Amino acid sequence: MPPPYRQLALPLPVADGCDLADLLEDASNAEALAWLRRPESWPAGRLALFGPAATGKTHMLRGLAARRGWPVLPGLTIRGWPAVPAGEGLALDDADCVPEEAALLHLLNLCAERGQRVLLAGRDPPARWAVTLADLRSRLRAMTAVMVHPPGDALLSALLRRHFLLRQLRVERGVQDWLLARLPREAAAVAEAAARLDHAALAAGGRVTRALARAALVELPGFGPDGEEEDAPPFRDDGFTDGPTLL
């Protein structure tokens, strides 16, 4: 008897643009998105997004940069006298990780001279960054900063559905609720879970079930312990019905 058929899982790219209009909004990010929609109103042309890891700061930063045509600079690369691309503005991710204070001060001063807007993202508000240069400290303290909070239930549910839709992965609503009750409450964890489930479903040649999800996500950091799965409370998202919705 021939061995059972198994579909080969290929690392195909998933289309997931960073356009600002595609970002999902809830109470956790509404204030930040409101500011991002009107860069012309930023005091002194600068805005900083801050908050815990995996709350969507980088996605929002890249979304605005893509819409406005701004370059995105990674903070860890800013050293010496950095080359700052000319243009309307620029975005600096992990701005609190710039290894040289003088390099960040030069970047901010040069953008101010040119009239370029600057969007920064980091874990803490700029006023609390540990800097020693007095000029840099004063500029950071004067900067408008907006917190991005951990996502709420409705946003996490919508994110999971979006990732499944992008991957053309059909998942029953009951399985989605079961997953959301056990996944870490982070956008990055939801995205990683969807990727692992997609790979596992392709390899198995079947649909996403609780058993497949348990096996595929057992090594995902923060996923609910197997011994507590059946007793865990269901994930609630009052914006949708309890029926067996398929994507």
TrEMBL record:
<dbReference type="InterPro" id="IPR027417">
    <property type="entry name" value="P-loop_NTPase"/>
</dbReference>
<protein>
    <submittedName>
        <fullName>Chromosomal replication initiator DnaA</fullName>
    </submittedName>
</protein>
<feature type="region of interest" description="Disordered">
    <location>
        <begin position="223"/>
        <end position="247"/>
    </location>
</feature>
